[in-house]
Design goal:
The protein is mainly α. Helix content is 77%, strand content 0%.
Amino acid sequence: MKRDSLKEIKKGLMGVTHPGHEAVASFDEPYLKKVKEFYIDYTLERKGAALPRKVKEMIIMSVCTAMARFGGTRLHLKRALLAGATPREVLEALQTAAIPGGLPVLWNGAAILAEEMKKMKVTFR
């Protein structure tokens, strides 16, 4: 059963996961299933949602960056790109988040964006 829940989480998170997902799967698989329902089914991939997945990922990315949670910034930035966001959209989200969050949001986020673009072989247009 653990493998099924972990597989579902990985699919819902576009293959971009945190080591904690696997740890929670081994410690408390029923909890992981509930997290998947809330986090993926009812939030990120909610049917009939007003906001597309890429926008939700950029919101989470921006909050992570403002909180200096750069591991989360990287995960959600990558998922935003995989969900169809352009590098320009990601940059604009970071620029906007820098208004309340301060310029370090932009500097740190832009550096992570450049690294992920290089890994994904994506160009800025």
